[in-house]
Amino acid sequence: MLFACYTSASSELMFLVSHWRVDALGVLMLLDRLFALLSSSPDVQSIVWRNDVAQISPSLEDAGASVGTGPEMEKYAQDFIAHHHQVALNTGGLPYRGDEKTPRTIPHSTASTTALIDACKKRHISVTAAVHAALANTVFSLDPVKGRPQYAAVMSVNIRPYLPAPYHTKSHACQTYVAGMTPAVDRESTFAEKTQTLTEFYRNAYSNKFMQALRLISGTHVKTLFAPRLAVDPEVPPQATQQRFSQQSGYHRKATCSTGVKIKITNFKFGVTMMTRQLLLYLWTFKGQLNLSVNYNDAYHDTASADDFLARICQVREQELGLELVHGHQC
Predict the structure, then answer these.
(1) Number of other CB atoms surrounding residue 50 within 10 Å
(2) 228 three-class SS
(3) Measuring CA to CA, which residue among 306, 307, 299 is closest to residue 274?
(4) What domain range is 301 assigned to?
(5) How do residues 179-206 score in pLDDT, each as one tens digit?
(6) Which residue pairs from 70-78 have beta carbons closer than 8 angstroms and sit at least 24 positions apart in sequence?
(7) Is 103 in a helix, a strand, or coil?
(8) How far is Cα 328 from Cα 314, in angstroms, rounded to an integer?
(9) Could you tell me if residue 140 is left (phi over 0), alpha (psi between -120 and 50 degrees) or otherwise beta?
(10) What pLDDT, on a 0 to 100 scale, did the predictor assign at position 247?
(11) Is residue 52 part of a domain?
């Protein structure tokens, strides 16, 4: 499914696409192509439409030439999925109630964004690691199941830069070239230790061995998902697993444009429509301004709890980094 709607009253373009078909960067590539066409004022009547079935982008495993076989690769795949399921299923969660789906966003000023980046550079960590560590500490403080030793978030890691030509280019925007990885941090570790652990993970998340074993990893993942499961303790309520920095399937830009005229993008937001009780946390920078956004299903979480969740993450991050940042209104 792909749907685009432009509202002239507010000069906003809403672009919706099924996430199983397109990942985050693919959405941006498609929008860039759309805006390029609009600004060039093409003769639509002269376009020759063709059957592009043969041009459909291959799967990630095929694009990355994942052909690893043998006992060593099989064990690597089994260990990867065993770790993934162990930490993902036992991570912390938030209390939830129990249909409207909606994101909540905290924008940062340009000055606050610059201050945050500078503070992270001085500590030799990434902004992503700082937010990730703050997320972990926030979940530890809110988790109804106390004493959980670790927190893990399922991350969608962009694999496009590592793919051979032409699969890393805009011509293959319509595909999900991402891989799920699950970094974990210990409850008892300090904020600084968490950020160092996460920064190191980000730097070494991808390897040629991982790509070679990806087909085996995918197959092992499917087998594990459909394997018989142990009975769940009825005394322990199921928790809402936190996913962060996952790929977006919806994209929204505010623009002032007309056909044949240079298009100016003044703002954008993105997110996903949630069907489960998971919360997805996004982090992006646009025009020098950092944005922190959480997507959730209103059947399980209300606006107040989502706003509190974002505010706590910002508070932990700033306390640990020694900053006082200016945020915009949550929206």
Answers:
(1) 8
(2) coil
(3) 299
(4) 68-229+237-247+288-321
(5) 989 999 999 999 999 999 999 999 988 8
(6) 73/209, 73/212, 73/213, 73/216, 74/216, 76/209, 76/213, 76/216, 77/213, 77/216, 77/217, 77/219, 77/220, 78/220
(7) strand
(8) 12
(9) alpha
(10) 32
(11) no
